[in-house]
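Support request, please re-run this one:
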Amino acid sequence: TSAGGFLLAQDDAAYQKFLEKMQLDTEKKSGRKILTGAKFTRRETDPIGVLALLYGNRGTFALERGNQKEAIGLFARSALLAEDDRYARDSRDLLLAQAAEKKILEGDLDEARRLLKFAIKDPGGDPIIRQRLSENVGYAWELEAQQHLDAKRYESAFSSLTAARDWTKDPAIDHNQKAILNMWGLDELGAQRHEKAADVFYRAMKSF
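Re-run finished. Output below.
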């Protein structure tokens, strides 16, 4: 649905165009092509399907509040009511991904990772969606690394990128970790801490 609900002021033809746009948006977010030639109308949205969607939304809100037990129960209800179990699971994971994106924009990287890991931990999800969720966990670690680097917390920046390795195959991680060590070494050299600078440069050489 839209922010205005089921757009009751529109006829079925106009509403179908709206649903087709939603389908394209979902395909972009999930990375999967939705193969269907069905003619959608608001009459095909049965009360049980709407209840399943609402339980999924409530589950996401519960998880955002930190109530994992309640969230699990609500997601389970959503899955039981949904006509298509796989669609219910994909919808849940995409809802959690959207909630995580919001937390990233708010700067709450720990909470973003928690939401994403909740979705990944539960087995049976779509492999493409799970891979995207995992990449987003890595991205959150990379953002944290940049924050540490901006504050010249070099060791923490390096450790955050190490954590990112567990979630993403981003080829830039090796380059960035090496750059962090070189910047750290140059800072130590500029501060006349020659022994520490030598240790950091040796670490860079040994690690890469």
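Confidence is low (pLDDT under 50) at residues 38-44. The two ends are 51 Å apart (CA to CA).
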